[in-house]
Structures are given as structure tokens and as C-alpha cells.
Amino acid sequence: MNIVGVFQEVLYFAAVIYTLAFVLYGIRAIKGPTTADIILAVDCLSFDMAAFMVVLGIYFKSIMLASGAIILALWAFMLDIYYTKYVLYGEVEV
């Protein structure tokens, strides 16, 4: 088996693992008993989606997916900052 075949098998395995993670995070985001659980699930979902976009970008040899992944990761980081400011100070100022 050549290196390209092994690499494609690893990408398929990663896709299956990420899909399972998306389902589990989605369940936690819907059923989360507290707001912190929901925010954490959405945060993990968005960071995993960014990583999955990079994996797809490698598979399809597309740089545009990597650019979208960077934007999605920055959005998730801003979500963390705004939620933390809300919990600490009770308001979100720009």
C-alpha cells in the first residue's frame, strides 16, 4: 500500500471521528442543563468544525477551506471572550 492510500484512510477515519464528535456536541448543546454547558458544547463544536474544514481542505487540496476554518476559529474565540465577560461583569461592552 502506498503512502497516498494510507493518507486517505487516515482522512476517512478522521472524518468518522469528527462526525461522531459533532453528534455528541449537538446533543449536549440541545440538552445542556446550564448555559455554560451549552456554550462549551457550541465552542467545542465550532473548533472541531474548523479542524474538520482543514482536514477537508487537505483532502480536496483547497486553500479556501483553510481560510474559512481560520475565520470560524476566530469566531469561536470571540464567543468565549464575550461569554466570559458576561459571566464576570454581567454585561458585554465593545
What would you say this structure looks like, in words?
- By secondary structure, this protein is an all-alpha fold.
- 87% of the residues lie in helices and 0% in strands.
- The longest helix has 29 residues, at 3-31.
- The radius of gyration is 16 Å and the shape is elongated.
- The protein starts with a helix and ends in a 5-residue tail after the last helix.
- 5% of the residues are buried.
Could you list some keywords that capture this structure?
single chain, 94 residues, mainly alpha, 3 helices, elongated
How many H/I helical runs? 3
* Alpha-carbon Rg, integer: 16 Å
Shape call: elongated
Q: Note the gap between the termini.
A: 55 Å
SSE blueprint:
Elements: H1 3-31, H2 35-60, H3 63-89
In short:
This protein has helices at 3-31, 35-60, 63-89.
